[in-house]
Amino acid sequence: MTEFARAVVFTAPETFEIQDIPIAEVGPDDMFVAVELGGVDGSELHMFKGELPWFNSRAPIVFGDEIVGRVHSIGMAAAARRGLAVGDRVTIEARWPCNDCRYCASGQYYLCSRNVDGRGYGTITAREMPSLWGGYATHVYVPKEALVYAVPEDLPAKTALVACSTLANGLTWSGVAGAGAGKVIAIIGPGPQGIGCALASVQAGAQVIVIGLAKDRERLAFVERYGAKTLAIAEGESHIDLAKRIRHVFGEIDAVIEAAGYQPAKDLALELVRPTGTIVHVSIPTPIEQPLDWMKMLFKEITLRCPVSHPNMVPTAIALAHDMFKNGVDIGEFISHVFPLERAEDAIHAASYRGDEVPIKVALDPQMRV
């Protein structure tokens, strides 16, 4: 008898459908994972609204590139190669390398020259069999090429989910910013990625300031628990006055991680960072095209870095999250709102702050019932 997965399928901008998709017979090199928890990330908010035309043309698509689950079925060759068995807990990385081009050879497989259209979890059309290419589902397909990592049994699903993407991003991006002892790092935007960068920068020994709006007070209070300082922007305060206020309290800022995506955040970053400092741009901009003061970049000799995702960082992030968990610090607390698949649109709206609440991190639980 054919077994079916239940999936949230993006069919058009602002349109999700719940569909039953057959779980194919597993091939020798493949496997299927039963999803415990799937994350809602910032890029999906833009995708759902139809802001990325190239993405709309791929519909139908199963969203979701943050995935934690258990092996549901696995081919014999895959089991031998991966050292996995049915029931093992795993996380799956969003992209995988071709192992042939210059970028994959250098370790940055998110820039694979053989994957110019960004194929991976949450972006492959469901027209491509076996259709289950995203974590907004009860099951997800795992091809031979995919990067799969074991998750400790004693690590809660929420903690593992935050580790496999948000913390992995934070470790990568704070490293690009040069976070370390004696460094002062400002992070603009206390969303999940900004909080992940703050946690990673604190762990690296940097002094960290997270900057947000008045409506972000709960998030700012949350990140203070991890050792960061915070500052809320006053209503009507210019980016020039705000930069002066920050420097008066914290001194020179060695690097700014811009995790908000809006033009005022970029203006603040340019004003705030010290001469010869670094700006790390990690957010999808809203709107997509925004001006940049290249003259200020030149005369302050600012280094601009735009790292893409977190290549080769997931094992390190899981290990750090596990050590922190054993020492009484659970980053799973980042996940403040969990929804069933049937309420995926509500989850997107919550993560977009369309309601009264301002979640820290949103996830979908395929086993949760309405």
TrEMBL record:
Lineage: superkingdom: Bacteria
Pfam family, one: ADH_N
UniProt keyword annotations, A-Z: Metal-binding, Oxidoreductase, Zinc
Domain Alcohol dehydrogenase-like C-terminal: 197-320
Signal peptide range: none
Residue ranges occupied by any Alcohol dehydrogenase-like N-terminal domain in the UniProt entry: 27-148
Any one GO molecular function term: oxidoreductase activity
Needed cofactors: Zn(2+)
Similarity comment: family membership: Belongs to the zinc-containing alcohol dehydrogenase family.
The name this protein goes by in its record: Alcohol dehydrogenase
Species per Swiss-Prot/TrEMBL record: Sphingobium cloacae
Organism classification: Bacteria, Pseudomonadati, Pseudomonadota, Alphaproteobacteria, Sphingomonadales
